[in-house]
Amino acid sequence: MTIPIGIQLYSLKRETSKDFLGTLKALATMGYDGVEFAGYGGIAAPAMKTHLDSLGLKVAGSHADITVLTTQLGEQMDYNLTLGNRNMVCSWSDCKTEADFLRLAEKLTHVGEKLRDVGMTLSYHNHAHEFVDLGGRCGMDILQQHTDAALLSFEVDLYWVKHAGLDPLDYVKTLGPRALLLHCKDMNDEPDQKSTELGSGLIDFSPIVFYAQTSGTQWLIVEQETFVHYTPIESARIGLEHLRQISN
Fold this sequence. Notes:
- By secondary structure, the chain is α/β, with parallel strands linked by helices.
- The chain has one domain (5-186, 208-218): Divalent-metal-dependent TIM barrel enzymes (TIM Barrel, Alpha-Beta Barrel), CATH 3.20.20.
- Helices cover 46% and strands 17% of the residues.
- The strands form two sheets. It has an eight-stranded parallel barrel with strand order 1-2-3-4-5-6-7-10, surrounded by six helices. The protein has a two-stranded antiparallel ribbon with strand order 8-9.
């Protein structure tokens, strides 16, 4: 199975802030299959849908933090259903304790139920703090154990898994089909451990992609936050080319 490749538009936040629709066109011209939103640039859903369709771009997902998902879920659902997006992603939580994560699991379950009722899915996007030991288990363990797989999947950020000291491939395997989306973000080999272009850092994406092709992962999503040698647009092209190469 060939998994479609998208890009998290947060990687191109400077570009989208200047020309949102022009950035989408550039990504489509490169050959991206789709995009993942982290905000909509003030563009109404019908206009966004028309533009995406004209470019042949699908929607891989859309990010919103837990506050937005619990207070503005209706608006998020309406916008994304218009786009044809079925993947909502909880992008962030500031949980620190076991009790925090247990409360978050309850909130995600409630949101997941509402999304399921309209044919959408909910995934949780990790950073590194979800892997801190809280007395025998970590936040990600709690979210897995205290939610129904039918209501919550995961968008695994491979960079942050590596940053937390875990092996990205091994961790993706522990999630199996719940690893619905993969954030493909590489880590440099410098002490600062910043993100870098795919294929130039410490993460070997080949076995991860190979596993994902049989595990139910729906999208490979390029993400990068630090740019040293290339512009964000150039880095987006490098990321796409790397994933295309190892996917074939």
